# Entry
Amino acid sequence: MAKIQLNGRKLELNSKYSITALLKKYKINVKKTAVELNGRIINRNKYELIYIKNKDKIEIVHFIGGG
Amino acid sequence: MKKDIFKVGGQISKSRLIVGTGKYKNFKETAKAIKASGANIVTVAVRRVNILDKKKPLLTDYLNPKLIKYLPNTAGCFNADESLRTLRLAREMGGWKMVKLEVLGDKKTLYPDMIETLKATKVLVKEGFKVLVYCSDDPLLAKELEYLGASAVMPLASPIGSGQGIQNKINLSIIIRNAKVPIIVDAGIGTASDATIAMELGCDGVLVNSAIAKAKNPVLMAESFKNAVISGRQSFLSGRMKKLFNADASSPFKGLI
# Structure
């Protein structure tokens, strides 16, 4: 089990999740977002290889309206 | 006459009007207004995905980034590091190299922190970004941004979202006269005539958000801005008449009965 922080929210993941699996769980479009793990931007090609660990801080961002 | 081309960040843009995508009632209205404005570059912000609301509509569903150029901004960033983080994430999202840097220094006036802006510009240029920089209307700092490699310098007309129009024509004129990169007036434009004035002063482009989004009829105002920018540019290229102190009759006195 991993206690993580996702977009500022504390969460507990019961099983092992790769970044790909995490995005799938929250129905997030891989192509329209970017992921930062513990302050480091993760290349899209590596999502499947990286697994979420305890205490990880994850930020998933996308574009919204702005000036 | 030579064809009038607007080139920014190494790319030709059909329109000299850049439009922001914030503050609209909904994405449908955003899309309609952008279409009416004729703009082919729009600014967008980078924010957290709402992980709880999976059905929330996305901007990209209404404005196709393949058809309209996204210009990611750093709105809400108050130092160089925050803005660098934001733009690196934006680049990761889809290879965006042309970006709008905006480092704020004060929450009330949203006036730019120029020390942090200069710092961030330097790093971004080094990392290969084409940086369009929101800045104060100080002619020396505008020139400094150009030296650092900014692709465009974007002085404010007045505070962001204030709609106060161009408050310092002299500074803006000095900046334009000294510049070798495009000068785009960003922030503070309140109505279409403000955009015309900016273009008549010799600006290369205008960036507008609130004046369109907060109009009673944003779609009509967007079209008005399209015309205003074209009109101002044509007026600038035409070269206005000299101002005279006294009257000069348009109908000849000769042959008067």
The interface with chain B takes residues 6-9, 26-29, 31-36, 41, 43-44, 59-67 of chain A (CB under 8 Å). Residues 19-25 of chain A form the longest helix (7 residues). The two ends of chain A are 41 Å apart (CA to CA).
